[in-house]
Amino acid sequence: MAAVSKYLSLVKFSHTIFAMPFALIGFALGYRSLRLESGTTDVYILSLKLTMVVACMVFARSAAMAFNRYLDRAIDARNPRTAARELPSGVLSTKQVLGFTIFNSIAFVLCAWFINRLCFLLSPIALFIILFYSYTKRFTALCHLVLGLGLSLAPIGAYLAVRGEFDWLPLLFSFSVLSWVSGFDIIYALQDEEFDKKESLHSIPAMIGKKRALRVSELLHVITFGCILAAGLYSQAGSIYWSGMAAFSAMLLYQHIIVKPEDLSRVNLAFMTTNGIASVVFAFFTILDLSWHQF
The domain spanning residue 155 has which CATH number? Predict the structure, then answer.
């Protein structure tokens, strides 16, 4: 158990809560579409696919986080905020972390194979995107968008698991995840503005400063609002969905109220607690709305 806890801490397993609810939204959308088309569904097959979708989410994110820690081990060791992480502190070795990355990457592709052919064929592309993010801070301030792109694959990937074909509605949710994650990652990066400048690392805060970076984050979250609004209108969602959207939007607004350029003491509250709750609440209301009107 001690060894397992080390790896869970390495990948910040609790942060899986950010994208997982949106994957469940994508799966629910796929289920609704399939049910409306055929009228019947194979519960056993859907249960198996749901299990594989959840497994894919866990394995993909674990691979991405472990690889990030492996690649950034020297940088983390020089940053007072991250020096206590598992690799710099010696809790885990580079060999262990690299092996963990490879294991999770293979497991992700294998789970995709069990879902359907399309998901299997697309899995290496998805894996490349989420692993490539770890390199981006070395050459572009748009690294936050690459992180958002990686997590935005969750709803469309889960939809493909059920339907095996693309559609606009899950893509709208993917776009919302892209802008939402990019926006709150900019807030998180405020903590390392000076360190990033010193190390010649790239980020929006390091490039334009804290105040302007927060304006960019706000703009991205306005785009998020627009995407979930468009998704609701496109799907002719009911009042339950709109209630969830209102709660989600209020939490986005709240994190911008509590984080100020001159006061970063509540960044972690905005990053983890607020966004985690927002994701779960929005997914709950969205899936409930789908269930109420369509299932």
Answer: 1.10.357.140
Q: Is the pTM of this model over 0.85?
A: yes
Q: 295 falls in which pLDDT band (50, 70, 90)?
A: very low
What pLDDT digit, counting tens, does each position of 126-140 carry? 999 999 999 999 999
Contact yes or no for 272/15 (Cβ under 8 A) = yes
C-alpha distances in Å from residue 48, one per residue of 16, 59, 247, 295: 20, 16, 32, 19
Which two structure tokens, joined as six digits, stand for 103?
A: 């294991």
Measured between alpha carbons, how far is 180 from 199 in angstroms, rounded to an integer?
27
Question: What is the per-residue pLDDT across 104-158, written as a single tens digit (0 to 9) for each?
Answer: 999 999 999 999 999 999 999 999 999 999 999 999 999 999 999 999 999 999 9
Token readout for 280 is 């779960």
Q: Please count the CA atoms within 13 angstroms of the CA of 184 that sit on its side-chain side.
A: 30
Residue 184 exposed, middle or buried by CB count within 10 Å (0-12, 13-18, 19+): buried
| Domain around 54 | 2-293
How distant is the alpha carbon of residue 289 from its chain centre? 22
Give CA–CA dist 173/24, Å, rounded: 11
| Number of domains composing the chain | 1
> Can you state the angle between helices 275-293 and 20-38, rounded to 10 degrees?
10
